[in-house]
Amino acid sequence: MATENRKQQLHVFFFPFLGHGHTIPTVDMAKLFASRGVRATIITTPLNLPLISRSLQESTALGLPINLIPIKFPCAEAGLPEGCENVDAITSPDMFPIFFKATTMLQEPLEQLLQEHHPDCLIAGWIFPWATDSAAKFGIPRIVFNGSGFFPLCVGNSIALHQPYKDVVPDSDPFVIPNLPGIEIQMTRMVLSPYIVNNEDNVIARLSKAAAQSEVTSFGVVVNSFYELEGIYADHYKKVLGRRAWSIGPVSLCNRDIKEKSHRGKQSSMDARDCLKWLDSKKPNSVVYICFGSYSDFTIHQLREIAMGLEASGQNFIWVARESKKTKKEQGGDIDEDQGWLPEGFEKRMEGKGLIIRGWAPQVLILEHESVGGFVTHCGWNSTLEGVSAGVPMATWPLCAEQFYNERLVTQVLRIGVSVGSKKWIPVVGDYVEKVAIMKAVKEIMEGEEAEEMRNRAKELARMAREAVEEGGSSYSDFNSLIEELVGLSN
Ligand code: UDP
Fold first, then answer.
1. How many CB atoms are located within 10 Å of the residue 283 CB?
2. A Gene Ontology MF term for this entry (predicted)?
């Protein structure tokens, strides 16, 4: 009871990286803390604030103790266009280093807020390595939120430590990830970020190195995962690599009703009820859902190839597609300026069979519908975990970041997916994949005995995911121990 009372007074600051793949699970985390009576305050920039506020509508109505505080993003000072406050507003690769540099200018305003509010804990995104020192100045423990799982954390750590890619020629030759528990995992230099393989010295490389270091110096790491999914990697991370970590996911499962699920992230481009109505008209496991996260930006050529691959697969589909941010001229090649990005007559032919959502979709709501039987994903960690939680086999199409690591987890460790065959780490646009490969991968996760086996394994994981977050489950218990520790510290 004493602890219960103390919990009421705990106050946790959340400071997520400015990308939807980070703010979305952070909002879920804040809801989770608030649902246990902890006061949660999310710090974000003015343009990200209304999106977060929308995602919190239902929690606010329930009276959960969650606040939002805006912090100015230094667009002009950093040389970014006004309004570029989220990675999804970045329109060219050379803006990334400037954007990351701009995030370092948030240190001073964050420290002012820490001094003013003096929370009991700061949970900050991995890309703010300086946040550990900032919090320490005020005697506040800082917890890191990487936004990824234990498997990718272990793989990333092994690659950084052992540099197994060194001297491997050609770039397409495989090498083994050393000192990893479980089955042997191979990578190639092509699927690693050039920051790693070329040992580049720039702002992103420096921040990444400092971030890895801050995992060690911080109070610990909070991980959106569950023990039953990747227990041997969780153990390895904690016992062999010596990190303190709590596994508290899948956090997306804290969203219980339709509104909560459809209010995650940006405003949906299609009404959630219309989406559900469309799905209701389809047979169980007969629709494949295709989405590449929050900031992918495919060329028109690639979009057309996807359309043709989907049509050839013969499956029902919901495809979340965005026309490229680049102009057709910038994309070069044989693009006809007047022609749209879909093959001629595609929408007419696909009427009733395929639904294209242009922009943002209520992903979790769609994935959880019983008609959805497969997911073509870029393997962002949230999407991967949401696919697992929904119990659907996945066709993996990693583009960049740690997505190739997640692909190995899905296809080789968990055996709930097949690769479409993208082989090269390319930011935002990804490696080019042809229609035949897309068609083949879609059919492999939707039809036949192997698809059924993958689906059965995925459904079993989904069941365990739900159990993990229920009272007495592994994530529920780990979350409890985290709160207990924070209570202990604040006493
Ligand atoms: N998402 C969504 N609708 C979309 C696109 C993305 O709800 O149309 C959500 C998705 O459910 C996930 C997040 O955005 O929670 C994307 O995170 P992820 O780690 O998968 O990829 P990222 O965008 O960071 O590459």
1. 10
2. UDP-glucosyltransferase activity
Question: Whole-model pTM?
Answer: 0.96
Residue 118 has a CB neighbour count (10 Å cut-off) of 12
Find out whether the beta carbon of 24 lies less than 6 Å from any atom of ligand 1: yes
Backbone angles phi, psi at 355, to 5 degrees: -120, 125
Contacts with 370 (C-beta within 8 Å, 6 or more apart), sequence order? 284, 285
CA 245 to chain centre: 18
Report the C-alpha gap between 306 and 287 in whole angstroms: 16
The Å distance, Cα 357 to ligand 1 centre, comes to 14
383 CA from centroid of ligand 1 (Å): 6
Give the C-alpha separation, 149 to 382, whole Å: 9
Q: Quick check: 99 and 121 in contact, CB under 8 A?
A: no
pLDDT tens readout for residues 321-359: 987 766 555 665 566 655 678 999 999 999 999 999 999
For the CA atoms of 86, 88, 90, 94, what is the dihedral angle to 10 degrees? 100
- Tell me how far the alpha carbon of residue 119 is from its chain's centroid: 26
Cα separation of 245 and 92, whole Å? 35
Nearest CA to ligand 1 atom 24: 21
ipTM: 1.00
Nearest to 272 by CA among 362, 369, 386: 362
> What string of DSSP letters covers 156-194?
HHHHHHH-TTTT--STTS-EE-TT-SSS--EE-GGGS-H
What domains does the chain contain, in order, with CATH numbers? Answer: 2-253+468-490 (3.40.50.2000), 268-465 (3.40.50.2000)
225, 250 contact by CB (below 8 A):
yes
Q: Which of 264, 330, 272 is nearest to 297 (CA)?
A: 330
Ligand 1 closest atom vs CA 320: 8
Q: Is the CB of 382 within 6 Å of ligand 1?
A: yes
